[in-house]
Amino acid sequence: MQTSKYIYYDGSGGPGGDMMRTNAAGWATGSYDFAEMFPSGDALAPGDIVMVDTNDESHVKLAENSTSANGLLLAGIVSTRPGFLAGLNDAGNFPIAMSGRVPTKVSLENGDIHVGDPITVSSIPGIGMKANPGSYIVGIALEPYVAGNTKATITVFLKNGWFDGSGLSAPNVATSGVPLDISAPVDLNGQAVINIGSLSGLGGLWSIDSTGKMIAPEVRTDLIDAKSVRVRQTDSTNTLGIATIDTLAQAAVVTNPDVKANSQIFITFRKNPSSSWWLDEVHDGMFIVRLSQPAPEPVVFSYWIVDVADERTPAPSSTAAPPANPAPPADSTATSGSTATTDPAAVPASPATTDLVVTAPPATVTVSPPTNDAAASTTATSDITAPATVPAATTDTAPIP
Question: Which of 33, 244, 257, 351 has the greatest number of beta carbons closer than 10 A?
Answer without folding.
Answer: 33
